[in-house]
Design goal:
Elements lengths: L3 E4 L19 E7 L3 E4 L14 H29 L2 E6 L12 H21 L4 E6 L10 H4 L5 H5 L13
Parallel strand pairs: 3-4, 4-5
Antiparallel strand pairs: 1-2, 2-3
Length: 171
C-alpha cells in the first residue's frame, strides 16, 4: 500500500481520499492497513533561533507536527475499540531526546508527541489498542538534504548511527 499525502493542518486529518501531493514538507505520510492499524507521520523541521520564533510560527509548527496525531487517534480509536483492538504508531524524532541549536520548537513539539503517545497508550491499552511512537534519526528526505550534502556535518551525524548510514523512507 502506498502512503497518502495530505495537508495535516486541515481540520479533518483523516480525509485522506482527497490528499494531494504538495511541494511543501507539511504533508503526512499516512498508511492505514486493513482497519486496525494506522501510521501517521508529518514534520516540518526548519531551523530557527529561539529569538526569531513568533506565535504564528509556533502555532503552524504545532499544527504540522503534533495536532494531527492527537485528532487522528480521536478519529480512529472508536472503530478500533468496537473491533476489539488495533495499533496506532506516531512518529516523533530523535530530537525529542537530543538537544541541538535551532531546534527548540521542533524538539519541544516532538517531545509532546512522545508524552501524548504514552498517555494515549495508558488510556487505550486496556481497550486493546496499542499506541507506540517511533523516534527516527537521520532519514534521507528533502527535509534532510542539507545534512546529506554537508561534508562537515554528515560524517558527524553518521558516526552516531549504528548502521553508519542514513535511513530511507521506505524502511
Amino acid at each position: 500500500e502506498l502512503p497518502v499525502l495530505t495537508d495535516v493542518r486541515r481540520d479533518d486529518p483523516l480525509d485522506l481520499s482527497t490528499g494531494q501531493q504538495q511541494a511543501h514538507p507539511e504533508v503526512v505520510h499516512a498508511r492505514v492497513v486493513a482497519d486496525d492499524r494506522q501510521v501517521r507521520d508529518a514534520a516540518r523541521d526548519d531551523r530557527h533561533a529561539w529569538t526569531e520564533v513568533t506565535p504564528e510560527y509556533w502555532d503552524e509548527r504545532m499544527d504540522t507536527n503534533l495536532r494531527h496525531q492527537f485528532f487522528a487517534i480521536q478519529a480512529v480509536a472508536p472503530d478500533m475499540i468496537e473491533r476489539g483492538g488495533g495499533s496506532i504508531i506516531n512518529m516523533s524524532s530523535i530530537l525529542a531526546n537530543k538537544a541541538m541549536s535551532g531546534t527548540s520548537v521542533y524538539s519541544a513539539i516532538k517531545s509532546g508527541v512522545v508524552q501524548m503517545t504514552r498517555s494515549m497508550a495508558h488510556e487505550l491499552g486496556p481497550l486493546g489498542i496499542r499506541v507506540n511512537c517511533v523516534h527516527p534519526g537521520l532519514i534521507e528526505t528533502d527535509m534532510t538534504a542539507w545534512v546529506m550534502k554537508s561534508p562537515d556535518i554528515l560524517p558527524l551525524v553518521l558516526a552516531q548511527i549504528s548502521l553508519g548510514r542514513a535511513g530511507q523512507p521506505r524502511e
